[in-house]
Amino acid sequence: SSGINAEWPLRPGFYTNNHDSLYKSDSNWSFITQKVHQLFKDKKLKELQLSKISKCLMELVGHENDITLSLEYKNTLMKRGMKCLLDNLNDEKRRCGENFDLLYNLGELWSEFMREIIPTLQLIFANIKHLNAKGDSVERITLEQFRDDVVLCTEIETVIEGIVGQKESSYEIPRSVVQMLLVLGNLANSDKTSENQRRICNLCSLVVKPYINPFDVAKTIQQY
Q1: What span, in angstroms and rounded, lies between the C-alpha atoms of 65 and 58?
Q2: Do 182 and 163 touch, CB atoms closer than 8 A?
Q3: Which has the closest alpha carbon to 64: 24, 8, 26?
Q4: How far is 142 from 195, CA to CA, in rounded Å?
Q5: Residue pair 85/114 in contact by the 8 Å Cβ criterion
Q6: Which one-letter DSSP state was computed for residue 93?
Q7: Which DSSP symbol is given to 200?
Q8: CA distances, 147 to each of 23, 32, 180, 216, 217 (Å)
Q9: Rounded CA separation 160/15 (Å)
Q10: Model-level pTM?
Q11: Residue 41 belongs to what H/E stretch?
């Protein structure tokens, strides 16, 4: 089941039952998709581009249901955007070879992500009610995707465990990475994301002392 109510007035081609990407024939959505991808690639958009994106999005909202747009945000825009970020990391790894510093590069990416990408997405999609209701927000949804499709798709666990395991290691984990883990570790979780959230919280417990791991607390409570 697609979860889409048949009585909602969706244009033909906008939504498919298998949640595939939408509306390829619509110039508004094509422009939005292109520019959001550009945001993930270049980390910035020009003011005029933001103005046109907002106009295109409002024209879609006038015709389509917010839920459809929110699904496309999660299943298409963010998946494609996070793949772009991960591809950039992998390209840098190939370029640097043995000199590649995952934590440094991930920290730099996180800083740009929080400084440029998330605020821009919040500005663009502020009026999509279903993305900003019932405990959800553009920021939370985007951070979850970054956690699942970028951070946990790298070797971050192996790298951090290796550093922590070396008692006399002189390597200092970048503050931006510590911040990233704490922010991601503070995300509310659901059944679908609890495993990934547990992995992030385990990393927090390795790099932050003291740190109360919520999964350890829940496990202790269950024992009593």
Answers
A1: 11
A2: no
A3: 8
A4: 18
A5: no
A6: H
A7: H
A8: 28, 23, 9, 20, 22
A9: 41
A10: 0.82
A11: helix 27-42
- Which tokens belong to 10? 């969706």
In angstroms, the CA 23 to CA 217 distance is: 46
16: Cα separation from own chain's centroid: 23
* Nearest of 208, 98, 101, 190 to residue 147 by alpha carbon: 190
Residue 157 reports pLDDT greater than 90: yes
- Angle at which helix 138-149 crosses helix 78-96, to 10 degrees, equals 40
Answer whether 54's CB lies under 8 Å from 124's CB. Answer: yes
Give the Cβ contact number of residue 223 at 10 Å.
Answer: 5
What pLDDT shows up at residue 60?
Answer: 79
The amino acid present at 35, given as its one-letter code, is: K
Write the single-letter amino acid at 193: T
Instruction: Using the predicted structure, report yes or no on whether residue 197 has a pLDDT greater than 80.
Output: yes
Of the candidates 85, 32, 20, the residue with the CA atom closest to the CA atom of residue 59? 32
Residue whose structure tokens are 């553009």 = 138
φ, ψ of residue 6 to 5 degrees: the values are: -65, -20
